[in-house]
Design goal:
The complex is a heterodimer. Chain A is of the alpha/beta class. In chain A, 36% of the residues lie in helices and 17% in strands. Chain A has 14 helices and 14 strands. In chain A, the strands form 3 sheets. Chain A has a 6-stranded parallel sheet with strand order 2-3-1-4-5-6, sandwiched between helices. In chain A, helix 6 packs parallel to helix 8 and helix 10 packs across helix 11. Chain A starts with a helix and ends in a 5-residue tail after the last helix. The model of chain A has no long low-confidence stretch (mean pLDDT 93). Chain B is 31% helix and 27% strand. In chain B, the strands form 3 sheets. A 6-stranded mixed sheet of chain B has the order 2-1-3-4-14-13. A 4-stranded mixed sheet of chain B has the order 6-5-7-10. A 4-stranded antiparallel sheet of chain B has the order 9-8-11-12. In chain B, helix 1 crosses helix 5. The mean pLDDT of chain B is 95. Classes of the chains: A alpha/beta, B alpha/beta.
Chain lengths: 410, 244
């Protein structure tokens, strides 16, 4: 280790220590940021001796999947703070926990290719690719192309775990020369009655012809086929018949299968995975229940059309009945552009007892609902209800949790 | 009374909640007891089906999607659309759609992609030399009213004499960030760099297009019943206040 690297680690460790000692709440990213500025290749040195590094990337489900894997692996596993998923977040985790057995990281879609230049993971999990914050990430195809290049050059020892129901990810999987395993639902009872509007990959990533779908689970995830070229869906290694999700929502079944296949790849047997999952508790704001003065609030982070549709579907299917509060912010972590709310299928959910709207763009979401035939109430604060569903964007979720629990999480 | 709305490639030209505009056409017509139907203009759609439309809408496509549809649009849909717009059929084109309707689009690599040539304008992409235009926009119409939107484009568009600018840009980049113009108007067709759901917060433009569609179809001016647009204008004004 050269002097520069040594100084970087020492400085990062110091910032990490100070941040925790004085509860500055910046420990998730700042130690890494400081180390990175001193030694830009710091991730390479820090990850060199770590045997088990697992990366989880994709548009939706990263945080929950990471938490599920961590739950299965137990005390010996550490992960980055939810949302601290750029390189500085990964580095901060290495600095904070230099001797962990397993490092499980959620990685930002746009950051994954860069991280792979410095680090050879044991496993990479690819959850899904949907349009999300186009003002920041660009188009789905742009991300997919960058992934294809990055994963094409991956070391053969790395296992790549891929969602077979996402045609674009399956395409990336088919181009990887190393070890690839697939998960998929294989459960026609979960098919939607018809295709949703918010889809991205419905044209063949290989030849450009329109894909046909025997059924869709949501967005473009489903039983797909190309009638024009030789690109065919891969055979799954695990399906919904193998594991039960500890959380409501079809999307959580995907997260469960991704986590379970990761655990199996690490040599953990099926029975132990199933047992561990029964102890799972949701991550911040991801189907999390908060009880304040006997009043129950369920929070479902909803930050892009596909995630939003799945949140609404989960609320409709739940035994918990209550009004729904939509909180729409347009800050940097949410994306400045809120156009996507018109791709959400509110028209299918006119029958909830009541809608509240709030946030920086409460008028925009109220207008969206008006054209869906719904009359919401605009509120500045969390309304007093015995049972309330809240669907917030990212910064709104942090604000609401802070209000409800009185503490900051990032 | 009824109008038929033609929606260009709904699967491929839908990137930023573009269908919000279709919802607005439908609802604002229905609220006035004007029946609506939507023709999804796709690869298999015939000239006759396209000609049955009284109003055309085109949204934004991602690069790959644009590549899939451009030949079909130019060769099989272009001639009939050109004829329709020539006789006054109104249209709204948001985001990247106007780039396809101009004479050409010059990519960052210097490749010249031929457009439909309906709007007298050209678009150039300067590659990495010029940053993308991303953010909330406000424009002023010739009649003094405002429009609000959100833009996200890499190309810069330059208007010829055959079109008029749609608006003067007050906040944002507009067509090219140089001449203060935003969008273009050709006969009853409007092109704007505002993307996605442009009409919800601009109900005056929505009504202008519906009104034109009825006028051309029924060959007489048909006054539109006023609606309660207080929420629309509240949302419009919130943008004006926040970004000026």
């Amino acid at each position: 280790m050269n002097l520069r690297t040594h100084v970087a680690i020492t400085a990062g460790t110091f910032v990490s220590f100070v941040s925790r000692t004085f509860r500055l709440g910046a420990g998730a990213t700042w130690p890494g940021e400081v180390a990175l500025r001193i030694q830009p290749r710091i991730l390479r040195y820090l990850s060199k001796d770590a045997k088990h590094v697992i990366l989880v990337a994709g548009t939706n489900g990263k945080t929950t999947t990471v938490k599920m894997i961590k739950t299965i692996l137990g005390n010996n596993a550490v992960s980055n703070t939810s949302g601290a998923n750029l390189d500085n977040g990964l580095i901060s985790t290495f600095i904070r926990y230099p001797n962990a057995g397993y490092y499980i990281f959620e990685v930002d879609e746009a950051t994954l290719p860069n991280v792979l230049k410095d680090l050879t993971p044991e496993i990479i999990v690819l959850t899904n690719l949907f349009r999300d914050q186009l003002d920041r990430y660009g188009e789905v195809d742009t991300i997919a192309e960058k992934w294809l290049v990055a994963l094409g050059g991956i070391e053969r020892q790395t296992n790549v775990i891929v969602n077979a129901d996402d045609p674009h990810l399956a395409f990336i999987g088919s181009k990887i020369t190393g070890k690839v395993k697939y998960f998929g639902l294989e459960d026609p009872s979960l098919f939607l009655p018809k295709m949703q509007h918010a889809t991205d990959t419905i044209y063949c990533p290989n030849c450009g012809a329109r894909l046909t779908f025997a059924g869709v689970y949501y967005s473009h995830l489903g039983k797909w086929a190309c009638g024009n070229c030789s690109f065919t869906p891969p055979k799954e290694d695990v399906t919904a018949a193998d594991f039960t999700s500890p959380l409501e929502g079809v999307y959580n079944t995907y997260n469960t299968l991704a986590a379970a296949l990761t655990a199996q790849t690490l040599g953990i047997n099926k029975a132990d995975v199933r047992e561990a999952l029964t102890h799972f508790t949701p991550a911040f704001g991801r189907m999390e229940t908060i009880v304040v003065n006997d009043k129950r609030i369920k929070i479902l982070l909803s930050k892009n059309p596909t995630g939003y549709n799945e949140s609404l579907r989960t609320v409709a299917a739940s035994v918990d009945k209550g009004p729904v509060m939509l909180v729409l912010n347009d800050r940097i972590p949410d994306g400045r552009d809120i156009s996507w709310i018109w791709d959400v299928d509110f028209e299918a959910y006119r029958n909830f007892p009541k809608y509240y709207v709030s946030g920086d763009r409460s008028l925009d979401i109220a207008l969206r609902l008006k054209y869906a035939g719904i009359q919401p109430t605009v509120v500045a604060d969390i309304p007093d209800e015995n049972m309330l569903w809240i669907l917030p964007t990212y910064s709104a979720m942090l604000e609401i949790r802070k209000k409800l629990t009185g503490r900051k999480i990032l | 009374m009824n109008i038929t709305i033609g929606w260009l490639y709904p699967e491929l030209m839908s990137t930023y909640g573009d269908r919000g505009n279709i919802f607005v056409f439908i609802k604002r017509s229905e609220w006035r007891h004007i029946k609506t139907s939507v023709v999804r203009i796709e690869f298999k759609t015939t000239d006759k089906e396209i000609e049955s439309c009284d109003l055309i809408f085109g949204g934004g496509a991602q690069d790959r999607q644009q590549g899939i549809l451009i030949d079909d649009l130019r060769e099989r849909k272009g001639p009939v659309l050109k004829k329709m717009f020539g006789r006054g059929i109104p249209g709204l084109f948001v985001c990247g759609a106007p780039q396809l309707l101009g004479h050409y689009y010059m990519t960052g690599d210097g490749e010249k992609l031929e457009g439909l040539g309906i709007f007298d304008m050209v678009t150039k992409h300067f590659g990495k030399k010029k940053p993308r235009c991303i953010g909330n926009t406000i424009g002023k119409l010739p009649d003094g009213k405002t429009i609000v939107g959100f833009e996200n484009h890499g190309g810069r568009t330059y208007l010829g004499n055959g079109v008029k600018p749609f608006a003067t840009i007050i906040k944002g980049c507009g067509n090219n960030g140089e001449d203060g113009t935003e969008g273009a108007v050709y006969k009853n067709c409007i092109a704007t760099y505002s993307h996605g759901p442009f009409l919800p917060k601009n109900p005056h433009i929505a009504d202008q297009l519906i009104s034109k569609a009825l006028e051309i179809k029924y060959q007489k001016k048909i006054p539109l019943k006023p609606l309660d647009d207080s929420l629309e204008w509240q949302a419009h004004k919130a943008i004006l206040q926040r970004f000026t």
